[in-house]
Fold this sequence. Notes:
Elements: H1 6-16, E1 31-35, H2 41-49, H3 56-80, H4 85-99, E2 103-107, E3 117-121, E4 125-127, E5 130-134, E6 137-142, H5 148-153, E7 158-161, H6 164-180, E8 182-183, H7 190-203, H8 212-224, H9 226-229, H10 247-263, E9 265-268, H11 276-290, E10 296-300, H12 305-315, E11 322-325, H13 329-332, E12 341-345, H14 356-366, E13 376-380, H15 389-396, H16 413-437, H17 440-465, E14 466-467, H18 471-475, H19 478-486, H20 506-519, H21 545-554, H22 558-582, H23 584-607, E15 610-613, H24 616-629, H25 635-641, E16 644-647, H26 656-675, H27 681-690, H28 705-715
Parallel strand pairs: 1-2, 9-13, 9-14, 10-11, 10-12, 12-13
Antiparallel strand pairs: 2-8, 3-6, 4-5, 6-7, 15-16
Helix pairs in contact: 1-4, 2-3, 3-7, 10-11, 11-12, 16-17, 20-22, 22-23, 22-24, 23-26, 23-28
Amino acid sequence: MGFFRVSGFKHLWDIIAPSDNPSKIDEFSSIRLLVGIEADKFAHLASNFALNSHDETKQKAFFKAYKDEFCARQSDDLNQSPYSPEVEQGFESLVSALTSKKLQIRIVKNKATHAKFYIFSTKPTYSKSSQTPRYNGSLIVGSSNLSEAGLAKNYEFNLESRQSDDLHFALCEFKALWDEAVPLLNESDFETEIEEFKRQIKEQSFLKECSVKDIYYKLLIEYFGENRIKIDESLKGLFPRHFAKPDYQLAAISEDLDKLEKYNGFFLSDVVGLGKTLIACIIAKKFELQDKSVKTLIVCPASLKSSWEWHLKEVNLSRQNQIVSYDMLEKEVKNPREFSLVIIDESHNFIRTNIDRYTNLQNICTDLNPKNERKKVILLSATPQKNSPKDIENQLCLFQDKYASNIENISNLEEFFSPLNKEFDKIKDKLKKSFNQEDENALKEAKEKLKNISTQIAEKILRFVMVRRTRKDIESTETFAANLKEQKISFPKISSPKELLYEFDRNVLELVFNAIYLLNPALNEKSDIGEFGYFRYLIYKNLNASGKAKYEENYKDKQNFLDNAQELVGLMQTLMFKRLESSFCAFKSTLKTQIKSIKAFLKMFENGSILIPKKMSNLYRFYDEILADETDDKLEEYLKTNKAFELEKSDFVATYEENLRSDLKTLETLLLRYESVKCDYKLERLKRQLAEFAGKKIVIFTEAKDTAGHLEHSLNQILRVEC
């Protein structure tokens, strides 16, 4: 009774003819389904002027229309069900049961029937003393329709009775309705009817038999999404008039919108230069046009705020949108719920969950929007994974529920990533050992395992929530390449890098090696200058019992102390190597900064009061600034303007101050030796090379500001330089 859907039939069929005992169906003399006319508005309305009419033509027209509608509903039901062999088997079982006439379906003719009851009954028996039939079986009465939702998904309420009288009453009611009902399939032309029934449902559902070409297109749509292979031309109207509107960007926007709708967020990871910022702005513009109340929050590095302001102005986005730098999230975002879309530029900077700025951002992203719906989140990064799989996992959690993901076949992100993260850590440890021992076989094996981890993440996660193209991808796509040519757009052709070699004299070469030995504590013994242990950053390890107690009052996780200290050492070690690689000028500047930092710390020792930031994230923020600005000048200011706790000299082990002074002496000696070097070998080689490009525009990239300043000053003598 009520609704009937083919998705529900498989549950009934599992009882009638279970896969482990298909012959059980022989135990049933008949299986009859009586479908209520009220289950379908169209059919009910049609019955008012057709079923009760004596006009045979009208009745035939109605039944054809009803059967068409009935088949369409079954097709819709199949299409809405996640594909599984059981769903397809359910349909095949239905057809088989109808064909064998073991199953009959009729439609209630004259009553608006909405009742739902299921009768499982043996044939009646009679006693010698009574003509009243007795039945064995079950009568189930309640709210469950014969559908997937009614039998397996929805909360339904049903009652069961095994009383013979109840069974008798229900069977009598059923028989009365059945005798008046109309068969779904016409007995006079049964074979034609059953074939048409199969054809209609298959034709409108995923069971349709497809050509090879259709299968190929379906594969493309399934794998890439419909919007990846079909461009919405209306998106061109969202671009600024004077901007090019290449198809590869339009295709990306279409695909991005699809992923936003499905997953509430995605990674836009196109390589540099393909227009990630513009694409994100166009998406924000579309959201705004659809709903004027939509506000967009853009989170970006402070250095990129001006670029975002320019793009928002060009795209003509409302001023109600807000651009916030990473470190100002907590201070400037007063009401997270007012935003419906969050765009995070350089999202790979949000991979550590143990720092405040990640927590602040996650709270903003996961808070509901003004309509009490989840926010949409766009993550912009050409390099979303910096180190481990956890980087991807933590960014995913900005728009996905860790324990209730809606990514295909990955309902629990924690369960998916946990073994991968453990495997990655094991491989990393083995790689360190293998590298030191120069074990090529072990290195090869480790690389294969890392490749396997990457493949799993790419195939099971990123293909659903990431859009990433390279210039080569676009140029090798025929339609994109033709469109670029049509619009007279070309990507710059990049030649393979040409290596410029320069040589040090023997004394300078020895000095460089001494610096390398010093920067790596494991190689200090090879240096003739001294030892350098990065003691400035190893605070917790050098506290005595009283100092550790004070530290632990502010930082609850002991392991975090150790991990963060080691990370800071690694960070400063990397910084020093990068400056050495960049130029002697940059390296000397960094040595001076380090010397100044240690002296400032020792001064606190002398004053008897050592200030430590209370929030662990403050440490990251501070050292991020070091990397960006190459300065330690903000130490005193930073500690004074942020909440801090106080340690005393007596809280440290006795050897700590001595070790700090040893590090200071080592750096001062190293600086003195570098100050004595008068020739800049690298610069002189560059000058000779630049002479070959006389009269041409030259762009020089360098990572360090000090190097850029040094180059500007030195090259002004031979070239017109813009820095």
